[in-house]
Each structure stands twice: as structure tokens, then as C-alpha cells.
Amino acid sequence: MACAAPSDSLSTLYRDHHGWLAGWLRRKLGNGHDAADLAHDTFLRILAARNAAAIEEPRKYLATIAKGLVVDRFRRQSIEAAWLETLAARPEPLAISPETRALILETLLAIDRMLDELGPRAREIFLLAQFEGLTYAAIGERLGVSVTTVKKHLARALAHCLILAEGC
């Protein structure tokens, strides 16, 4: 069975707006290569997500998707830079192999995506419990919520962690 060709509406959308989108991204990023990658990724998202014929304002729609991809790229670069900075501070005998580095970076990115899915309150509660070691009562006091609320949000966050762990 042959793969289905992209719809005519997607071909038209690409032909009519790819150059504009790539130029818009190039101005935003100051880099033609990254702009080309993100323009390509934008159209892949449309191909995977919906019928291009239903898009009423193509440039607005393309810009919205592209902005999200730009944010994702900057977030990834920020996490990667923090990780590389942490690695650089390690003594040489404790250096980590490139394969292990890549696995750890992918895990950090997956955790970041998981935390984004929690919502701001659950994310904050999870981070306070895991990284600051605060008790339920201390978290509740700091955030002005009940211990029951803290437990509920922390349980939800830990459930997300389990789902993430099962996917690894």
C-alpha cells in the first residue's frame, strides 16, 4: 500500500506560506538553519494534526504553531545548557559518557514536559517537596493551601512520574 500524498490544501498552504514563515522565523531567531528546521516542523505538525483546508487564517495559525516550537527549542537549549554546566563542574574521574549524557538529557526533557502538564500549583508543590524537602504542612503554609490540597496535587504529580517511568 502506497503512502497517501499530502492533501492539495496542505500543498497549497505550503507553497503559499512556507517562504513567509521561514523568513518570519529567520528574523525571530537570527539563524536561517534553525528557521528552516522550525518551518519544516511547523508543517509536519499540521500534516499530523488536522486538515489544512480547515485553516481560516493561515499565517496566524502558522505563526502560533511556530511560536510554540520556538519556545520548545529555547526551553530545550536552556535545559541542555544547565546540564552541560553541571557536567563541566564535575571532577574528571566522574565524567559521564556521551551516551549516558544523552539519556540523562532526554530524561530531563521528559520530566520538564511532565511538569508542564501538571499545571502551576501541582508543579510548585512537587518541586517544593522534591527539591526543598518541605513537609506537606510546610508546603501548605507557604502556599496558603490545606494539607489535603497539597496531598492531592502531590499524588497527581507522583502518578505522572510513574507514567513517565513506565514509558522509559
From TrEMBL:
Coiled coil: none
Family membership noted in the UniProt record: Belongs to the sigma-70 factor family. ECF subfamily.
UniProt keyword Transcription regulation present: yes
One Pfam family here: Sigma70_r4_2
Keywords: Sigma factor, Transcription, Transcription regulation
Family annotation (InterPro entries): RNA_pol_sigma-70-like, RNA_pol_sigma-70_dom, RNA_pol_sigma70_r2, RNA_pol_sigma70_r4_t2, RNA_pol_sigma_r2, RNA_pol_sigma_r3/r4-like, WH-like_DNA-bd_sf
Record PANTHER family: RNA POLYMERASE ECF-TYPE SIGMA FACTO (PTHR43133), RNA POLYMERASE SIGMA FACTOR FECI-RELATED (PTHR43133:SF63)
GO biological process: DNA-templated transcription initiation
Protein name in UniProt: RNA polymerase sigma-70 factor (ECF subfamily)
GO molecular function, one term: DNA binding
Gene3D superfamilies in alphabetical order: 1.10.1740.10, Winged helix-like DNA-binding domain superfamily/Winged helix DNA-binding domain
Domain RNA polymerase sigma factor 70 region 4 type: 109-161
